[in-house]
Fold this sequence. Notes:
Blueprint: H1 2-9, H2 13-26, H3 31-43, H4 47-60, H5 65-78, H6 82-94, H7 99-111, H8 115-128, H9 135-146, H10 150-159, H11 164-191, H12 197-220, H13 228-254, H14 257-283
Helix pairs in contact: 1-2, 2-3, 3-4, 3-5, 4-5, 4-6, 5-6, 6-7, 7-8, 8-9, 9-10, 9-11, 10-11, 11-12, 11-13, 12-13, 13-14
Amino acid sequence: MTKGDTALEGGDVVGAIALYRQAIDGAPLSIVPRLKLAQAYQKGGLSEKALSEARRALQLAPDNQPVQQFLTELDQENGTSDGTLTRYRTLIERNADDPAAHAGLAEALWNSGDLSGAETEYKAAKRLAPAGDHSADAHLAQLYAAQARYDDCLAALQEAGKDGYALALKIVKNRADTLSSTIEASRAAFAGGKSTREQFYDGAKTTDAQAQALAGFVARVTPPAEYKLSHLHRMLSTNLLAQEAATLRAFIETGDSKQSDSVSKLEKEAQTEMLTAQAAEEKMGLWDKK
């Protein structure tokens, strides 16, 4: 393998690949030459071949840290999740009953935009998890919320047991922050001439629908008795956010500057109510439980 290293250092990728292949032929069960071959492929811009070789190395030694690190670096270099997907798919091939591998694959699929695949893998992780482990339910609830599938989200939160309410708060905050940021960014883009009125309006309609759905979701969440007051503040916050989104849409339709001012006022009021709810819960240690 030393000759392969020398060739690769000298920029002779083709020669290095040939030499590493010879090393593999002489020691087919060795991890090192396969990893070096994968690295040579990646250096030569042959990412698919690099993934394939790393996969073979993982099949021989699933817990090999250098191979896992290579796959992580490959993702960082290529801006993809292919390395992580390869890692967890290989682990599942070796042991289809490993809940952690299914959960890891689900996260990688989610990051790569395959929400349906992520849901399937989280459900597999849930099915295989030991009794009392509700981590997959928590991930499913977050996945459903990201798609505004609030009926499914509520069902998953119920499955999550005693930690369901704390998780619901995290979901609500994340969704509210996202919607608020979306409204602010869309207004700035239109004011700066970076979007057309039609694009501005289409985005506002979508945000309006999502904000209304979030407010409806919060109204259906049942808080423990000690958090009823703070939950009222959270309900008010999301209702104000929904009003903000509806007012933005009305402003685009009418051009009434007073409605534009109302959007800014409603945004501040919604944020104040959300902070009030969270501050009360922090005093009781609820947010520490997440």
